[in-house]
Structure formats: structure tokens, C-alpha cells
Amino acid sequence: MSEFLISKLSELFGQNEYLFVYDVIAFLGWVNIVLALIAIALFTFRRINRHVYANQQPFLKKLNKPLSKIHPYIGIALIISAYIHGDLALGSMFRIHTGPLAWWIVVVMMLVALIGKKYRIKKWLPVHRVLAVLFVVSIVLHLFARNILG
């Protein structure tokens, strides 16, 4: 699917398909970084408001409301964008590599959140947060030691 999309987009932009795919991979990589930062911002701003301002910072409270609403959609967008990024770069998300590792962590995070909320499991949020830390570590590995796993 993504090869067909790249083929059509490279024709549309009048670029060499082989070179265009690398531009798309790089662009999607940056999109993924931005999406991950937006998703992590919710937790970060809540912690800053709680521990630095004793929940008294009105700007952070107002900022967290829309972030809370878009957080799940950001996660879904990240899963889709990262999948396309990985599919174009590796040809599969089932290879041993730091990129698919990060992608699978996000998928598990989403499943933990969905199952935890649906079945009212009390300890799903700490698990979600631990997975978020693992996700950040996997992204750092992906950025700086991409081929460490193979």
C-alpha cells in the first residue's frame, strides 16, 4: 500500500521515486516526534502544575483540557504514522529493530488504555506511564543507535 502511495506522490511532485521515499521517511519521522511530544506534554504539564504550582496555574489547567481530549487521537495518529514510516523504511514492522520496538510499545500502551478504561482496571494508568517511559527510551535508541538490535 505505501509503495503505491509513494509511487503516485512522486509522480505528482515530479520527483525520482527512489529519492522521494527517503524524503517521506524523514518527514514522517519528524511527524512522529511531534506527535510523541504532544502526547507526552499532557503528563508533563500536569506534573509541572501539580508539583511546581500546587495546581494553581490557570494557563496549565486550560492547556490540559484540550490535551486530554486529543491525547487518544494523537496516539492513534502516531500508530498510523509510525507504521507507514517503518513500512517504508524497513518493509515490515515485524523486524528486530529499534523502530518497530517503539511502535509495538505504543500499540501496547493503547491496548492497556483501552482495556483498562473499558473494564475499569484500577492500575492501568501506572502501567501506561511505565510504557511511556519505555517508549521514550526506545525512541532515543532509535534516534541515536538505530541498528543496535540488528
TrEMBL record:
Per UniProt, the keywords (alphabetical) are: Membrane, Transmembrane, Transmembrane helix
Question: Is Membrane a UniProt keyword of this protein?
Answer: yes
- List where the protein spans the membrane: 20-45, 66-84, 96-115, 127-145
Q: What is this protein called?
A: Uncharacterized protein
